[in-house]
C-alpha cells in the first residue's frame, strides 16, 4: 500500500508513531508537519 500523507490528531512528539513503525512520532510522521 502506498504511503500517503495522513492528517493525524496532534500527538506528543515522544509518543510512538501511529503508523506502527515503532519509531518516535517526531522522527517518523511528525516530520511531515
Number of strands: 0
**Proportion of residues in extended strands:** under 5%
Structural class: little secondary structure
Round the Cα radius of gyration to an integer and report it. 9 Å
Q: Whole-Å distance between the termini?
A: 22 Å
Average pLDDT reading:
76
Low-confidence stretches: none
Main beta-sheet strand count, sense and barrel state: none
Number of helices: 0
State the share of residues found in helices, binned by percent. Answer: under 10%
Tell me, briefly, the overall form.
globular
How would you describe this protein?
By secondary structure, this protein is low in regular secondary structure. It is globular and about 20 Å long. 0% of the residues lie in helices and 0% in strands. The N and C termini lie far apart (22 Å).
Task: Using brief descriptors, characterize the structure shown.
single chain, little secondary structure, globular, 33 residues, 0% strand
Quick recap:
This protein has 33 residues and is low in regular secondary structure. The N and C termini lie far apart (22 Å).
Give the topology, please.
Elements: no helix or strand
